[in-house]
Amino acid sequence: MALGNSSNIIVGAAQVWVYEGLLADADLPAYVGGTKYATTLDGDADFRNVGYTMNGLEIQFQPDFGEVAVDQVLDVAKLFKQGMQVNLNTAFAESTLENLLVATAGSDSDLSTVSGNPTLNLKAGTLGECPIERGIVAVGPGTGDCEEGSNLERIYVAYRALSIESVTVSAKRDEATMFEVSFRLLPNDNGSYGKIVDRTVTPTP
């Protein structure tokens, strides 16, 4: 009797790309036969690789259920779903101003070149200002049998991501500067937060 399938165990980090603005399926580059999707994304000017990350990629699904209690049952008689929250967490290990802009949910206009020096303008914003939403795509290892000559990958797509948590910028003697970022994912008009795709890339003959 088989105990399980070890090929379904995923180990390894993911690469993360940022898309400026709301992301739709039509904005995603098409799969290219024999080519890793990371290579395809690197070749698309609309997607920017954030570089090295720390502590991996974590997506949290937090449903919220209401309860119905009745006199005849000591426990809850029925649960009903009344809310949902999805978060995507990671840490940018490359402390560039471009990554800090994304981590602090800044506008592209806040990053400019002043006297030849890249400069990030830290703004408080204005009352009623619309939050900055960006698309997120990550590519990591996938499940399946690692046949010779095949590449297994799992693609994570978030259509609307907002950085909502506090971000710390530090300069320490014995610790690398990183930007820990938590993205709140929102559903699009079709009620979808995004998608996860398992893809096998077989080299073209």
User: Roughly how much helix do the residues carry, as a percent range?
Assistant: under 10%
Alpha-carbon distance between the two ends:
38 Å
Number of helices: 2
How confident overall, as mean pLDDT? 91
Proportion of residues in β-strands: 35-45%
N-to-C series of helices and strands? EHEEEHEEEEEE
Largest sheet features: 8 strands, antiparallel
How many beta strands in the DSSP annotation? Answer: 10
Shape: globular
Radius of gyration based on Cα positions? 21 Å
Structural class: mainly beta
Count of domains: 1
User: Are there runs of 5+ residues with pLDDT below 50, and where?
Assistant: none
Structure, explained:
The protein is mainly beta. It has one domain (13-58, 90-201). It has two helices and ten strands; from the N terminus they run E-H-E-E-E-H-E-E-E-E-E-E. It has helices at 37-42, 97-103; strands at 15-19, 47-49, 53-68, 78-92, 111-114, 117-120, 134-141, 151-163, 179-186, 194-201. The strands form two sheets. Strands 1, 2, 3, 4, 7, 8, 9 and 10 form an eight-stranded antiparallel sheet that branches. A two-stranded antiparallel ribbon has the order 5-6. The model has no long low-confidence stretch (mean pLDDT 91).
